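Archive record:
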Amino acid sequence: MRRYGPALLLVLVGAAILRISAFSALYLRYVQAGLRPYLIVSGAALVLLGIAMAVVRHSADDGHDGDGDGDHHGHAHHGPRVAWLLTLPALALLLFPPPALGSYSAEREAAQRAAQGVGVFPALPAGDPVRLGVGEFSSRAIYDSGRSLKGRTVRMTGFVTHGDDGTWYVTRLLVSCCAADASTSKAEIRGADALPADTWVTVTGTWHPRGKLGTDGAWPPVLDAVSVEQVEQPADPYEKR
């Protein structure tokens, strides 16, 4: 069985990739939606390559059965037993996919700094409440000299994180490519009781201005809540930059 170890590992890794990309939306916990076709192709290629390796190995073993040197060929290419440990990550991804990044990842990141500069943002759509991503709300609150949020009711969805002083935030992680480059956007919620960390909520409320635009004093932005509704985690838990 050990001689088929590399082939089995390829099949396991390929099957794990196919499980999260072709047969579910779990891949959205790790990468953007546009990468799904590449994941499917990669997973299928690994499975096929593993099967091909197993077939070639089996054919080679059959060819040596009667040459009197079977023992030599049967054991000459065995790898170290520790290599079997490489199957554990593949099995973990196949059977127990890791969850999306949450409050722990968000809290590790230091507060954002005013690096993008103050400017005028495009007008918001008509009608209240206007649905915004947490990242867009944060950007407008901190950098928009046109004060487009003033007097508007907004609605945002994110997960709960807690501050050291009893404050709580609705938070989203923003990605450019995959979970490895995630950064944090959040808004402090006032006027509503906090829920447990990592609970997904939809918050409706109005912007509470504070601090000077484009400075650390404006971070994090504040929302005076009108309502907080607990919701299911969306299939795609990340916002795009």
User: Anything to note?
Assistant: The chain has two domains: 2-98, 104-240. The longest strand covers residues 153-162. DSSP finds six helices and seven strands in the chain. The first helix runs from residue 5 to 21.
